[in-house]
UniProtKB/TrEMBL annotation:
Residues 147-161 form the CCHC-type domain. Its main location: nucleus. It comes from Cyprinus carpio carpio. Residues 203-227 have a biased composition (Low complexity). SUPFAM superfamilies: Nucleic acid-binding proteins, Retrovirus zinc finger-like domains. Keywords: Metal-binding, Nucleus, Repeat, RNA-binding, RNA-mediated gene silencing, Zinc, Zinc-finger. This is Lin-28 homolog B (C. elegans). Residues 47-119 form the CSD domain. It comes from the Eukaryota. Residues 190-202 have a biased composition (Polar residues).
Amino acid sequence: MTARGGTALECPTTAPALTYTMAVHSISGPRRGGGSDPARTPPQILAGSGFCKWFNVRMGFGFISMTSSEGKPVDPPLDVFVHQSKLVMEGFRSLREGEQVEFTFKRSSKGLESLRVTGPGGGPCSGSDRRPKGKAPPLKRKPKGDRCYNCGGLDHHAKECGLPPQPKKCHYCQSVTHMVAQCPHKGALSPSTSQEPQRPSTSAQSQEEGSRSGSSSSPEEASQRGSHSQRWRKSRD
């Protein structure tokens, strides 16, 4: 550059400013909108097919063995996680072990996860015949006899009785003088009173039979026994 009077002036160089701008750009990275961020890139959705490896109908999840991905065979098969919410079917959603399925899936930090699972050709899944076992129903109490505790009727219960509240009475004999705990008719049938009387001992029984036999002998038999004893004494002397 030449000034008035023919004196040459030097122009300031722009190289240091350009070098600083490039260094800041390399540290901070690309500006917004300029380039793609790998972390924000949506996952790639792929198509696969295979069969149900196992499925827990109570928990609602299982795994699919993928034998084909994007039309190419997968050997050995890969496990793909499946949740019941991803199954295309009506009613209770589940899979039967060995059931053939087609699905779309993605790769996540936990592994391969299915996104939409259908039957062959895009139809609904068949599902499993199993159902989760619920709580066992409570045992029904054995019904008691149909007797009204208010009036003693046999064709209804106390809550259905049309009569006003009656005085309290024994539920066993319907008496108003006592309650069932003091019922004499119920105590009369107790096992202690219904037992058979004890039999006499054999010695007492034999003595009783001997006394009966001695008292029932005739006078002639007694005289014969006396003469026989006298003869036995004389022969002995």
